[in-house]
Amino acid sequence: MVSDVAEAPHPGDGPGLPIASGAEVWGALRGHLRRERGRLAGVAVLFLVAAALGLVMPACLGRIVDAVTAGAAWPVVAVWVAGVAAGAIGAALVALWGARILVGLVQDLLARLREDVFTAAMRLPARRVDDAESADLLSRVTGDVDAVSEAGGNVVPALLSAGFAIVVSLAALTVLNPWLAFAGLACVPFYVLGTRAFLRRSRVVFREVRAREAARSQAVLEAIDGHETLTALNEQGHALDLVAERARASIRVQIVGVGLRNRLFRSINGGEAAGLIGILAAGWLLHAQGALTVGAVTTAALVFHRLFDPIGQLIFGLDDVQRAAIGLARLVGVIGLAADAPLPHPATPAAATARTAIELREVSFAYPGTARGVRGVSMRGAPGTTTAIVGASGSGKSTLARLIAGHDAPAAGTLRLTPPAIPFALSQELHLFRGGVAANLRLAAPGASDAELGAALTAAGADWAKPLVAAAPGSDLDLDPDLDGGRIQQLAVARAILADPALVILDEATADVGLQHRAEVDRAIAALRRGRTAVLIAHQLQHAATADQILVCADGAVIERGTHEELIAAGGAYRRFWLAQTGPRGVMPPHASPNDPPTTPPETETP
């Protein structure tokens, strides 16, 4: 059954992000642990002392049995009773002290790990994230982080305490009589066989659980993202059925895991019974030979019985440890994948901004498993000019933009930015970050003053947002979460102006902006283009008409190039596109320039 679960295909399988090996996980943790050697040593000493104090109680109880058997006076018994209380209190206090230090240590390590993972996630190449399902990365930075955090805060202290208790207790049994320790080993076959069977099967099952949960999350995300389309097509039931199907698949695998745990519990109970029976039998024989007192046998039995809880914690904790290990491997997989990625650079200092030239020579690129892409593209964009790329859907426009932005690397040919620059991309996807206007803008310039934010808003034509710069998140002046798409895009333009990039890529940046604010956003984008090198991907040719040069793409190749007037005069594909959008009398206003906003075009797409 387990093998079926491990190999069964399920919806949502795809080229997911990698999972790190054990060596890679250890390599990621080793540096963090090395910096905490002092605290680790202190925790080890405290747990060792706590385990030793824990033996005081069974030792004193054994003495009480011997004292009562010998008819000792009650003051003698009272001393040993006080020893029981003192040992219990001392062991609890020292263990608590060690646990507090260990929990703090573990949480510090987890905080660093979370920072590493989130930093790595932000550095992953966009193409690599696109190739994996979005829920894969999402489940790693949420569910997997939670699994590791829960194990680190609760399970690790319990397991470490249990480990010291087991070692010290076995040493105590050996001191009492080696035969007692030997008899207690009757539990080992039960523990070893049960644990090996559990570990061998559970790792596969728990890995599959995480994969199934990621597939379920993907179905939920897709339903949320496409809810308007689903509603329009009356397909909500189909989306709910898909989510339910993937949820049931996840539950089925989790039931397999429950069965594995139940079999492990039976093995543990069998081991406890075998070990305790062995010690009692050995103790009875040794007492019959005069080698041990009744009190010593009692102490041995209590010491072994005291191991039930630590051994149970150690073995039962393997469940959480397995989950955390899988989560940790998935997290380190993200870190390792981003190890060679360039550091994020959200903004170029204004003083360092330089006009950048773009040069492509015979550039070709194809998406994995398809023939789609671009082939043999050459172009040059002079510093401070705008190059528009137009064409039908699937012609290669956005692929060229991705190549210039650095999201993908050419498979052939050369692409140079001179001097090197970090492009700032503004796409049609609208997003409003939480936290107010200032928080949205300071993503691009963390040190910007309120006055600088206001100037950027003015340049972007977003004076309406200036009173909100100083507003506290959650106040009456905070941003409306249902803000119009045009307003959101104006904030995005203001953010780009604050970043002051040398090269800006506009990928259909007004596609999702309503007509109400289209002209305002057009003027904001014109302000952003002014004085900068820009690449403009446009379906609406009114936007492309103001560019210094226009490239017309078809089937991944550039079939025409020139200014708007030259392409109209040439009477080729661009002219046909232009007339299809504007009508037979559509002409470029004679006063237009690359820095003028285009007139609002009809709502049609390039054929």
TrEMBL record:
SUPFAM superfamilies xref list: ABC transporter transmembrane region (SSF90123), P-loop containing nucleoside triphosphate hydrolases (SSF52540)
GO MF terms held by the record: ABC-type transporter activity; ATP binding; ATP hydrolysis activity; ATPase-coupled lipid transmembrane transporter activity
InterPro entries in the record: AAA+_ATPase, ABC1_TM_dom, ABC1_TM_sf, ABC_transporter-like_ATP-bd, P-loop_NTPase, Type_1_exporter
Main subcellular location: membrane
Coiled coil ranges: none
Pro residues bias: start-end ranges: 591-601
Domain of life from the UniProt record: Bacteria
Stretches that traverse the bilayer: 40-65, 77-103, 155-173, 179-199
Subcellular location: Cell membrane
Keyword line: ATP-binding, Membrane, Nucleotide-binding, Transmembrane, Transmembrane helix
GO cellular component, one term: plasma membrane
ABC transporter domain span: 358-580
Domain ABC transmembrane type-1: 41-323
Record bears the keyword Coiled coil: no
Stretch list, region Disordered: 585-607
Keyword Transmembrane helix (UniProt): yes
Membrane topology type: Multi-pass membrane protein
PANTHER family (UniProt xref): ATP-BINDING CASSETTE SUB-FAMILY B, ATP-BINDING CASSETTE SUB-FAMILY B MEMBER 6
Designated name of the protein: ATP-binding cassette subfamily C protein
Organism: Leucobacter luti
